[in-house]
């Protein structure tokens, strides 16, 4: 049995911080690796030791095996923890670590390799009588054969990349007219992302739920499950909300699915943390094997909160050769836990990722609240990595209590400086269907819509808070903030913009107060104090406290009534806007140029892909909005660009 005294973490961000925390508790030396963009990150500061991986692209850094092996040797680490993503499910890397004499903290390489192919995984499950979704999973991958098999299965159906994950190479096809184009697109995307264009076709189960079971094995043949997580609320095949227990599973069905999950693990000789994912139908309580994630999951804190276990510690124990310390009958669920993912993105603009500096990051004190984050005030969100800021986890005695705590947490979270999805998350958990557990994997697409409030009853007060903060800032050197005025009668005004809607805010000094008017509404405002980004006001007799920060012309404001808002100050004498280039296409966000699909002189058709951008692991195609001829191209492949950068021009 090997004793691990030092662990090198081949990952970044919040999961690196999470692993470091358990290492410190166990007295194990933690070693980090970091890219150029991550050199000032929280996980680098927290690690006992850290090594530089030059560059920013994952191929140059966190998945560059040769560079990583060099650092492993240099560090003298006993073991490596891959976290999730990057190299965590790379069987070759797991074998390389063992060959180098370093313990890989994860399942055996054979299990990883088998489950890395959806095709092989499905065959193994069928051999062990695990229920699988009806479909086609054979070697003949010609367009003709795939089309014929799709027609046999019937619509709707799902195309899946055999080597895939994260929604890449995945298409839902609803009718025969779509099938050929969908197969070609799925194969092309799969080849680009995974180097393999093998597809699986499956019957698509409409309004299904995604329920997964946390499994755990040791090197002595022992296997248990640690109950389920409901992960049905998803966007672009990425999970948004996870909770446990599932609001729909009966105890009998829970035990049945858990027993099947353990059978899956035994079929793989599984010996560490993993997750067996199922598709579940509310209609008849049927369920089918989906896949096994051969690593720690992003949402593992949900399981930890209801079981009281430390899954990272269990991973280390298993890697050392220790037998599982608990048996299946010891696994008990206590209360309810849920997790939401706070991202730097604009939910009202198709969830477009955002970059920039987080000026302030603070969370309230709530019993049962747990935050997993690699972010602190002053951290930068770069375009090179996933835009997740934090995982917000709450635990309550009941599901209603957990939802109440989550709502309070989101209302009082201060994450200012970049656009986030905080308001979307708050709106989501207030939704009656979500609160009742009545949802499915397509809920966000078919049964829910989100728009940022622009006429919300609290918007006027938010704008007053920003205007008052500007007023106080201008006059901060005066001894009496609120009594100062340069004219008793002359009115002043500010113009602000939220979601392209402009509002004029009028005000004037009246004694020791400010008289505000917005449209037909009037407000008497007294500024009590403004310091450390906190402005204390009395608005029409009611005391309110707002957090207000600004960067250039944008103000970031937080208050429990509306969460966080981005407010743009409209200059009274705005600079002349850059003229729009006729036929020009601009980048909607900071990004890297992944591919340029056209050349100067090419004729293009409406809807044709011109350029593919990448930002924060998300690919965005720039498509032609009309027919034309490519006149100029202003970017190169692999170039990093800012938002609103002119990409090309079509005549």
Automatic annotation (TrEMBL):
Segments forming domain ATP-grasp: 122-320
Family annotation (InterPro entries): ATP-grasp, BC-like_N, Biotin_carboxylase_complex, Biotin_carboxylation_dom, Biotin_COase_C, Biotin_lipoyl, CPAse_ATP-bd, PreATP-grasp_dom_sf
Limits of the Lipoyl-binding domain: 576-651
Top-level taxon of origin: Bacteria
SUPFAM superfamilies with a match to the protein in the record: Glutathione synthetase ATP-binding domain-like, PreATP-grasp domain, Rudiment single hybrid motif, Single hybrid motif
Domain Biotin carboxylation per the UniProt entry, residue ranges: 3-449
Names of the cofactor(s): biotin
UniProt keyword terms in alphabetical order: ATP-binding, Biotin, Ligase, Nucleotide-binding, Transit peptide
MF GO annotations: ATP binding; ligase activity; metal ion binding
Protein name according to UniProt: ATP-grasp domain-containing protein
